[in-house]
Amino acid sequence: MRQFALATLVSAVTAAVYGPIALLWWRRARVRGRTLRLVAAVELEPYHAALLRQEATGAAAAELVLGGYLRIDEEGAAFLTEQGRDPARTPAHPMPAALLEAVRRHDPEAVSIGWIDWCDDFAERRSAYRSERDAVLPELPRMPDGQGNVLLTCLTCVGIALVMLFWLLAAALLVTGRPHGLREWALTVVAALGLAALLLAAKAGQVVRERTECGDPLGDLVRSAPHPAFAALDEEQRTLVLGSIAERYRWRGADTVVHEEADDEADDEDDAWLDEKVWWEDAYEYRASDEDEDEPEPEPGAAPPSSG
Fold this sequence. Notes:
Elements: H1 2-40, H2 46-52, H3 56-66, E1 70-72, E2 78-80, H4 82-85, H5 94-106, H6 113-119, H7 122-134, H8 150-176, H9 181-199, H10 201-211, H11 217-222, H12 228-232, H13 235-246, H14 255-294
Antiparallel strand pairs: 1-2
């Protein structure tokens, strides 16, 4: 009778522990399958994928270089070609068209792609294009993991504590029991297997999470291939494009004049402040010298004035 009750209780507790694990596996497997199906149906536009990789500016510059709109020298300065200056000729895609328009605003001054990417209206148009393209992406379901649910976390901790207490009591009863006959030995083996399964419950939950984890399928799709225009560049062209993107301060195009005027105004303000400071110092010294001249000299033999 003791072995029967012990085997029944251990089996019930084991089923209660592995039931939520099985439910978690079922839910995560469904979410994983749905996520993979949604991502498989996504057709990423090359510039959208480049935007998600933070490489859209380089891809647009590469297309302009390949199309003959732009030339970049060894110092990172970008210049328009005759074709690039022709207003009737513009790339069909909005991203290289926006970059070409930005370079035209600075023509004939030398400007780097990095300066345009950092300080020009091109960044706003790029953000607008990304918002437009992100809107067509499917909303991927969230993988259930229980994180952030305080109530579930507390219940899990209480359940683990109760299961551990039960396991210790059941193990003590199993060890101290004296089974007689084949039936009691069979019940004892069932109880022992149930206790061993309870010890592996945490490992089983970890295995379920690992095998149902789908990773980042959308990110893998985004990183699967570079932009076609950037991939078509030869090694020298790729180096020039990347160098112009990295150069953010030296070649500022038409903005150079604005910054120089601002620097001149700042220098004028500093000079005015220094002149005012010198004037106050001179005035103070002049007043101090007047006070020294106005003070009467003591007569010879006269006693010095008392401090009291």
